[in-house]
Design brief:
This protein has 280 residues and is α+β, with helices and mostly antiparallel strands. The chain has seven helices and 17 strands. A hairpin with a 2-residue loop joins strand 5 and strand 6. Bound molecules: succinic acid (SIN).
Length: 280
């Protein structure tokens, strides 16, 4: 494997690896190590069946089944489709999902460890994905801010996010709401494998800081989100068909960007790896 950095604070690219083939233990252990060290891995030029995508992602742990079941592939409900494409008059995937800074499924009591996103069809321009290191963002804060925010907690809300992001759609069903109640997580979390601290913020899903007045809460979240997503801590991935990106949701945020969805189609399959503990 050839490993090259993607940006100063986050990400490496691995070349010389074929994810459609079963990986030996040593190779997989090296991928895990690189993920813990750099939080984001890009592997280009892959040609994966749905089964191979699931098999690779499954090496990291149990896979999440998304609550929006209409956007899961058959026969692999572990793959959540992000797309503007329609087949037989129906959308095959969730369009405009994740067009805000977030960490995948942070609204669960036990949020996801990581994600493995595979580009099946990409527009020639636009639809880049931005990634940001929440560890680097935490490190760069001044001591006074660190001391102030360290004990704080935030409410993460899927129904709040859904209502904002998809206001023009059918609301969540009772069953979907029941499966995604609001949860409270620390604003600063500890990586369970490396012990490093990171900010745990985000737009839209992170509704408020517990115990602060609404204006103070909104101002603090806006300030931290602005800081955390500055270019200094970020990487922009320009997709090519066949790219696989793996990221660690415990210490990064990401955001998809718009594209000309009339002229072009985009089809991305995401396998989301279940977490193993509540954030602490
Ligand atoms: C996501 O938020 O997981 C999707 C990112 C993307 O579509 O680029």
């Amino acid at each position: 494997m050839d490993v090259t950095p993607l940006s100063p604070k986050i990400g490496v690219e691995i070349a010389g690896i074929d994810l459609s083939q079963p990986l030996d233990e040593a190779t997989f252990a090296e991928i895990r190590r690189l993920l813990n060290e750099h939080s984001l891995i890009a592997i280009r030029g892959q040609n994966l069946s749905e089964a191979e995508h699931v098999a690779f992602a499954r090496r990291f742990g149990q896979l999440q089944i998304h609550v929006l079941k209409q956007f899961l592939t058959t026969p692999y409900p572990e793959l959540y489709v992000l797309s503007n494409k329609r087949e037989a008059g129906k959308p095959i995937g969730n369009h405009k999902e994740g067009w805000n800074w977030h960490s995948d499924l942070s609204y669960l009591e036990v949020p996801c460890l990581g994600s493995v996103l595979y580009a099946r069809e990409v527009p020639p321009v636009g639809a880049d994905t931005l990634f940001s290191s929440m560890e680097a963002a935490w490190e760069a804060l001044d001591a006074e801010t660190k001391a102030k925010i360290r004990p704080l907690k935030c409410v993460h809300s899927y129904s709040g996010y859904y209502a904002k992001a998809f206001a023009d759609r059918t609301p969540l069903t009772e069953e979907q709401r029941a499966a995604t109640p609001d949860v409270v997580h620390p604003l600063v979390r500890t990586h369970p494998e490396t012990g490093r601290l990171s900010l745990y913020v985000g737009e839209d899903v992170v509704k408020e800081v517990v115990g602060l007045e609404p204006e103070e809460s909104a101002a603090l979240l806006a300030r931290l989100n602005r800081h955390a997503t500055s270019d200094e801590f970020s990487h922009r991935h320009v997709w090519r068909q066949g790219d696989v990106i793996i990221w660690d949701n415990r210490c990064t945020m990401h955001k998809a960007t718009p594209y000309d969805d009339v002229a072009y189609t985009r089809v991305m399959h995401r396998a989301t790896i279940c977490g193993t503990e509540r954030p602490f």
